[in-house]
Amino acid sequence: MTIPTTRLGRTGLTVSRLCLGTMTFGFQTDEETSRVILDKAAAAGVNFLDTADVYPLGGGLPTAGRTEEIVGRWLKGKRDRFIVASKCVGRVGPNEWDQGASRKHILDAIDASLRRLGTDYVDLYQLHSDDRDTPIDETLEALDVVVRSGKARYIGVSNYLAYRLARALGRAEARGLTRFVSVQPRYALLFREIERELLPLAQEEGLGVIPYNPLAGGFLTGKHRRGDPTPGTRFTLGTAASNYQQRYWNERAFATVEKLQGLVAEAGQSLTTVAVAWVLANPAITSAIIGASRPDQLDETLAAGELALDPELKARLDEATAEYRRGDAPR
């Protein structure tokens, strides 16, 4: 298997069209299993890895940074073969300044991430969320320092509303500061709100789009059943459980998944593979972030990298999930 590659927005950076998300490493998934997952993705042609200083998901403050450490140990001796992305803004320590997008925290956070990852630089450094308490000019100035110092090659954002991203792009241009090249939003058949404003903005501004949750936290695998959330999944995972339950654990989502299963069964496909391929079929999308807590879970998601989604099936999937374009979720 060879995953196709593409350019990240208008940059010259080439990335695989599937990106391996690592947020399960160190809490839901132990280090030995994490290394097997990394090996399997790399063997399939995935050269793009995404992490964050607050990971692993669900562990909370006591485990923050553990995922970067696991990825860093795995990268030893092969750093030059991979595009590595990380993020800051989330709380990583007990002090009030151990979070956010202030100059102090960004400059502290990038150094801490580089130490954990065992590298001199990250290819893409992203704001994990929008810190509205810090002036955007201060944030952009700090990120400009990070890039000019060589500690990051490019910068991006995650979980930004379109108008906030547009303002940040405008301020960077006006001030002559390093510009964001990418955005990492939530996007799946069960969450399509970004199609209304964020994706058109990204296309107009030439931004790479690296969506997370293409399987809606595993909900689009079709393995879940009504009733109490399934043990051992993100819907029961530590501090992340309530967030995932709020997003997807409802009757509307269950009914939609049943409808989608019927559509893909007629086409002789796997819903897991098709759900990721549907995300990749949008021309605004650069690379979809796939994750796993077990190596075998990659089988069907990696297959999406080579699947050319039938236009008729895509149209039926679009129609079946049109209602998920509506809403005003903050992220």
Task: State the total count of DSSP E strands.
Answer: 10
The N- to C-terminal Cα distance equals 33 Å
> What radius of gyration results from the CA coordinates?
19 Å
What structural category arises from helix and sheet content? alpha/beta
Shape: globular
Estimate the helix proportion, in percent.
25-40%
Total of DSSP H or I helical runs spanning 4+ residues = 11
Structure summary:
This protein is of the alpha/beta class and 331 residues long.
Model description:
- The mean pLDDT is 96.
- The strands form two sheets. Strands 9-8-7-6-5-4-3-10 form an eight-stranded parallel β-sheet. It has a two-stranded antiparallel sheet with strand order 1-2.
- It starts with a strand and ends in an 11-residue tail after the last helix.
- It has helices at residues 31-43, 66-75, 103-117, 136-148, 162-175, 198-205, 241-248, 251-266, 271-281, 298-302, 311-320, and strands at residues 5-7, 14-16, 18-21, 48-50, 83-88, 122-127, 152-158, 180-184, 208-209, 288-290.
- The chain has 331 residues and is α/β, with parallel strands linked by helices.
Keywords:
single chain; 331 residues; alpha/beta; 8-stranded parallel sheet; two-stranded antiparallel ribbon; 11 helices; 37% helix; 13% strand; globular
SSE inventory with pairings:
Elements: E1 5-7, E2 14-16, E3 18-21, H1 31-43, E4 48-50, H2 66-75, E5 83-88, H3 103-117, E6 122-127, H4 136-148, E7 152-158, H5 162-175, E8 180-184, H6 198-205, E9 208-209, H7 241-248, H8 251-266, H9 271-281, E10 288-290, H10 298-302, H11 311-320
Parallel strand pairs: 3-4, 3-10, 4-5, 5-6, 6-7, 7-8, 8-9
Antiparallel strand pairs: 1-2
Helix pairs in contact: 2-3, 3-4, 8-11
